[in-house]
Amino acid sequence: MLFQLGKVYLSENQDFDTFDRLFFFKKYLNPIYFNIVQAQKKLGVEFYNLTGSFVRAWNDEATSLFDKNFINPRFFQLKNSVILWTNPIAWHLVKCSFLTRF
User: Fold this and answer.
1) Phi, psi of 44 (to 5 degrees)
2) What is the DSSP string of the chain?
3) How many C-alpha atoms does 10 have within 13 Å on its Cβ side?
4) How many whole angstroms separate alpha carbon 2 and alpha carbon 64?
5) Does residue 70 contact residue 99 with C-beta atoms inside 8 Å?
6) Would you report the helix, strand and coil content of the chain in percent, each value rounded to 5?
7) Chunked in runs of 10, what are the mean pLDDT values of the chain (102 residues)?
8) Which of 26, 25, 36, 23 is nearest to 63 (CA)?
9) HEC sequence for 42-61
10) What is the DSSP letter of 77?
11) What separation in angstroms does the CA of 37 have from each of 14, 77, 100?
12) Which residues contact 87 (CB under 8 A, 6 or more apart)?
């Protein structure tokens, strides 16, 4: 239901300059994200940050996009940056996205 209401809100508010992003995050995205995390916990699905080998920029177990623990500071450590920059796919994406603009 909440997902459908969010889609309706997006279809009715398509102007980039007047779109209320904070309202959309608080009213739709944040509750949807909370429900996904709760469902994952109830179903016993392991969180990626506990099982994956690559560190993500966000904490999978945070229940809110505004949670003080949502951003994972480990992602921004130098050793993780080196892994990111030595990945040929990641480097290609950065090169195509940013370096061609200068």
Assistant:
1) 75, 20
2) -HHHHHHHHHHH---TTT--HHHHIIIIIHHHHHHHHHHHHHHTPPPHHHH-SS--SB-TT-S-TT-TTSB-GGGGSHHHHHHHHH-HHHHHHHHHHTGGG-
3) 9
4) 16
5) no
6) 65, 0, 35
7) 91 91 93 91 80 72 86 70 64 63 48
8) 36
9) HHCCCCHHHHCCCCCCECCC
10) S
11) 28, 25, 38
12) none
Rounded Cα distance, 20 and 13, in Å: 8
- Separation of CA 67 from chain center: 12
Tokens of 23: 């309202």
Token look-up 């450590």 returns: 77
- Unique residue bearing structure tokens 């309706």: 8
Which of these, 92, 90, 45, 50, lies nearest to 74 by C-alpha position?
50
Q: Which residues contact 68 (CB under 8 A, 6 or more apart)?
A: none
Beta partners for 58? 71
pTM of the full predicted structure?
0.63
